[in-house]
Design brief:
By secondary structure, this protein is of the alpha/beta class. It folds into two domains: 182 residues, 3-Layer(aba) Sandwich (Rossmann fold); 184 residues, Dihydrodipicolinate Reductase, domain 2, CATH 3.30.360.10. Helix content is 36%, strand content 20%. The strands form two sheets. It has a nine-stranded mixed β-sheet with strand order 14-13-12-11-7-10-9-8-15. Strands 3-2-1-4-5-6 form a six-stranded parallel β-sheet, sandwiched between helices. Helix 2 crosses helix 12, helix 5 packs parallel to helix 6 and helix 6 runs antiparallel to helix 13. The longest helix has 20 residues.
Length: 419
């Protein structure tokens, strides 16, 4: 397996753009699959989440397999490949294992039917358009964008996916989880009256995965610990808390008008991400959504999503309460693992079930999270339109190689940082 990680950022961006343009002109009906046809998947991103995603794909449905693997790093491809042999008896030949910055392109050029995108979030803006241009169905992990330009690329590719009849599932789980779906139906039917507010929380502990050194980290080292660098992850309000933001916006059927947020970095000593964010989203018509997320050890935690109505309130996970606080409905608890169910829904859609494309809704949730982060970083109120129409993008402007020492800049300071 050759390591092509020396590919320049210029060539990388050019190849992504050419692939997208080449596919944009082609619009046709989706390929039909019988129930007993084998769906062949290829995995981009062979880290921990990718290894889980490929196993969940294999568990989700009959007649599915994986035939190709891709990752920037050869050791991650090998680990995933060895795991598939040991756990599933699936052998991936050398010629179907790809490394380097262009690994996603070479995988997409194979005869895979489905692309499983579980790579570092920054790269999703290149991989997803290329997969859609090539006529592939896609499972894509969240977040699907970390900056405004990336969000625009994802939105355009999502529209092209509809035109081509391609199915897209995004790994937010909740939209495919039985208890959330049943609660959503009841809220839509008026169980809590008109929605007048929401609360989105992901308040937890810090993430591991970093061995600190005194040397400035290279691009390769940052990609291996991408959650700690905001140009790669979007910071944890985008990378992690988007789950809760997405659930609340889904239940409310709205996108925010503006956001006023705060946050800071007080205890983290590696990377450049914040410790916490607190954001007040203005949903219009006097309706607000409170958003809280934190990654700090030794503190109380809360991971939940709530909507408040004129007649009561609901924990979107599966419980409804009246105005007095008495529970009036609760899900019975029977459910399939949502990480598996989302893949099952994708396979069913490909085989002729109801067309699915989560990307349209989740890109709006990512824009909302980017709004909240931008407001906290700058100390300024930020509108949805500002982010949706902005032209700034993160990432190195010089050639992107694993040994490049890249400093994204000082940690953002509210009242000082601007975009």
């Amino acid at each position: 397996m050759a390591d092509d990680s020396g590919m320049s950022r210029r060539d990388f961006l050019r190849s992504a753009g050419v692939a997208a343009l080449a596919g944009a002109a082609w619009v046709g009906s989706r390929k039909g699959y019988a129930q007993n046809d084998t769906l062949k998947a290829g995995l981009i991103g062979c880290g921990g989440r990718g290894q889980s995603a490929v196993r969940q794909w294999l568990e989700a449905s009959e007649n599915v397999t994986v035939i190709a693997l891709a990752d920037l790093f050869e050791d991650r491809v090998k680990r995933c490949r060895d795991g598939l042999v040991g756990d599933k008896g699936i052998r991936i030949p050398d010629e179907m294992c790809f490394t380097g910055f262009d690994c996603y392109q070479r995988l997409i050029e194979t005869d895979v039917d489905v692309v499983l995108s579980a790579s570092t979030p920054y790269f999703r803006q290149f991989e997803f358009p290329a997969a859609i241009a090539a006529g592939k169905h896609v499972f894509m992990e969240k977040p699907i964008a970390v900056d405004p330009v990336g969000a625009k690329r994802i939105a355009a590719a999502a529209t092209l996916a509809d035109e081509k009849g391609l199915n897209v599932v995004v790994g937010t789980q909740r939209r495919h989880e039985a208890n959330y779906l049943e609660c959503k139906k009841r809220v839509d039917d008026g169980a809590i009256g008109d929605i007048v507010g929401a609360r989105a929380y992901w308040v937890g502990g810090p993430l591991g995965g970093w061995e600190r050194t005194d040397k400035p980290p290279t691009v390769g080292e940052q990609i291996r610990s991408w959650q700690h660098f905001y140009w790669l992850s979007g910071d944890h309000i985008v990378e992690q808390h988007v789950h809760n933001i997405d659930a609340c916006l889904w239940f409310m059927g709205k996108t925010p008008v503006s956001a006023l947020g705060m946050g800071f970095r007080g205890r983290k000593t590696f990377g450049d991400s914040y410790d916490f964010f607190a954001v007040d989203f203005d949903m219009g018509s006097g309706i607000g959504m409170q958003s809280l997320c934190r990654q700090v050890a030794g503190c109380d935690g809360d991971v939940s999503d709530w909507v408040i109505g004129t007649k009561g309130y609901a924990n979107c996970w599966g419980a409804i309460f009246d105005a007095s606080g008495a529970q009036v409905w609760g899900h019975d608890g029977r459910r399939r693992d949502p990480y598996v169910q989302e893949h099952a829904d994708l396979a069913n859609a490909i085989r002729g079930g109801e067309h699915v494309n989560d990307a349209h809704a989740v890109v709006k949730s990512c824009i909302a999270a980017i709004m909240g982060r931008t407001s906290a970083y700058t100390g300024k109120r930020v509108s949805y339109d500002q982010i949706a129409n902005a032209g700034w993008q993160w990432g190195p402007k010089e050639d992107l190689t694993v040994d490049l020492t890249y400093d994204s800049g000082p940690v953002p300071v509210p009242g000082v940082t601007t975009y």
